[in-house]
Predict the 3D structure of the following.
Amino acid sequence: MNKNTFPKTLKNKSLQSRQKGEMLMEHNSTKNIEVKVLDASATEEFKKALIDIKADDEGNKVINLELISTTGEIPSAIELIGMTNTEFITNCNGEIGLAGVILAAGSKFGERKSTSMSMFRLVEDDKNVGKKRTTLSPNEKNALEVLGVLSGGKKSRIKAFMLNGLKATANEAKSLGLIDEVESFKDKYSKEREEAKKKAKEESTKEVG
């Protein structure tokens, strides 16, 4: 199969690779889709893939989205979050572009997660990162209107980030109402460190005694 061709029928452990991104999905179970680039073509492929997903008892198709440094087109993101009978549960990782921010913010409330090291780029064009502006592009204006609603009324704060070309940390994105939960960094050697600390304390006590 050509890596740029999206199959008509998705099968177990299927993997579709595109030049601009990848989407991973299991068939007829909890669906996991990895999104790296979101454009009009990917959006159409996304819709076709949804056909193979079983709806829950309420008629909704629940999809787990892994946003991995997701970039793309703002109109495509707005179109996706407007789809009826579809609920997205998202986890963000890496540097998320404005289209990815919209997709994350438009996911199921309470189920919008991010790793602690993720960054959220609130500008459409990379060249505007770190630059102060007085106006937004047409797409950014549309994005701002959508994010203003999805954030629960924090439009002015989001606009300030956009005009100042600022990237938001995961915790800042949470305070802006764009995500709900930030997974804290976990030390995989925490047990060993605690044991070493305890041992050091015991040895120090012995020396004093």
Observations:
- Helices lie at 40-50, 74-81, 98-105, 138-150, 155-163, 170-175, 190-208.
- The longest helix spans residues 190-208.
- DSSP finds seven helices and ten strands in the chain.
- The chain has one domain: 14-208.
